[in-house]
């Protein structure tokens, strides 16, 4: 009787090594998913923000700046909240995208704007328009307005700066408002309209913020979109600027 030919098989060590390699590979793939989801979300938000901003600039050109005369007697000015100046001349629903009642909680994207005259020429109605595009992640979220009262959608607020000197990348926020200025927020210099990005907060004190570059001039007030009153992700998505002649 002939012996049966022995069949070779994987040893326990080989099986364990294969399982280990597979586990490491799956772990690496799994760690890529959050980053991919984040990048997709950011790309989607920025694409939508560009659409919202184009609509905002078009509406501003249609409604113009409240109180503009021809020729304009306004001097070169600091930033002013366009929505506040327009008052009841434009419905609140015009600031949302898609345009529905912001208090209804149906929209996710909202825009707001600042304006400032760029020169002292009374015959030149040239204004710098800054449009903020923000996203409301949850219908129940509330935000602070410029009087620090709660509102249902993100609007720009003005914050005082205790110390902000030209050629310095840091500035000190007035006490009480430091929690409204978080990393990745885009800020607007009230006097010049220059844009800066907050890199971090807390070096040298909770009210000290570091910017993405040195200040181009002394700064005393800034504008930004604050986070929701419950905290979390910054509501601001993008900030856009254009020079418009009315």
- The helix tally amounts to 2
Please state roughly what percent of the residues sit in beta strands, choosing from under 5%, 5-15%, 15-25%, 25-35%, 35-45% or over 45%.
25-35%
Quote the average pLDDT: 83
The count of DSSP E runs of length 2 or more, i.e. the number of strands, is 13
Q: Please list the strands of the largest sheet in the order they lie side by side.
A: 7-8-11-10-9-12
Report on the biggest sheet.
Answer: 6 strands, antiparallel, barrel
Description:
The structure is a single chain. The chain is an alpha+beta fold and 246 residues long. It has a domain at 32-156 and 225-245. The protein has 2 helices and 13 strands. The protein has helices spanning 12-63, 82-86; strands at 80-81, 96-97, 109-117, 126-135, 143-144, 150-151, 157-163, 170-173, 186-189, 195-202, 205-211, 221-224, 236-245. The strands form 3 sheets. The chain has a 6-stranded antiparallel barrel with strand order 7-8-11-10-9-12. Strands 1, 2, 3, 4 and 13 form a 5-stranded antiparallel sheet that branches. Strands 5-6 form a two-stranded antiparallel sheet. A hairpin with a 2-residue loop joins β10 and β11 (205-211). The longest helix has 52 residues, at 12-63. The model has no long low-confidence stretch (mean pLDDT 83).
């Amino acid at each position: 009787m002939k012996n049966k030919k022995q069949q070779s098989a994987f040893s326990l060590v080989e099986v364990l090594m294969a399982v280990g390699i597979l586990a490491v590979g799956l772990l690496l793939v799994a760690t890529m998913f959050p980053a991919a989801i984040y990048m997709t979300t950011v790309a989607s938000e920025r694409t939508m923000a560009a659409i919202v901003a184009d609509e905002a600039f078009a509406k501003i050109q249609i409604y113009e700046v409240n109180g503009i005369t021809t020729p304009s007697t306004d001097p070169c000015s600091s930033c002013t909240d366009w929505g506040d100046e327009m008052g009841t001349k434009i419905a609140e629903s015009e600031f949302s995208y898609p345009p529905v009642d912001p208090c209804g909680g149906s929209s996710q994207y909202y825009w707001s704007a600042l304006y400032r005259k760029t020169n002292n020429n009374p015959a030149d109605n040239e204004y710098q328009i800054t449009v903020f595009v923000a996203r409301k992640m949850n219908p129940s979220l509330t935000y602070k307005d410029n009087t620090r009262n709660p509102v249902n959608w993100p609007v720009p607020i003005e914050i005082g700066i205790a110390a902000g000197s030209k050629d310095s990348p840091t500035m000190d926020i007035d006490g009480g408002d430091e929690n409204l200025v978080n990393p990745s927020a885009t800020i607007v210099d009230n006097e010049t309209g220059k844009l800066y990005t907050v890199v971090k907060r807390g070096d040298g004190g909770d009210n000290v913020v570091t910017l993405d570059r040195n200040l181009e001039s002394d700064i005393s007030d800034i504008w930004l979109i604050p986070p929701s009153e419950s905290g979390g992700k910054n509501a601001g998505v993008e900030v856009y600027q254009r020079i418009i002649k009315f």
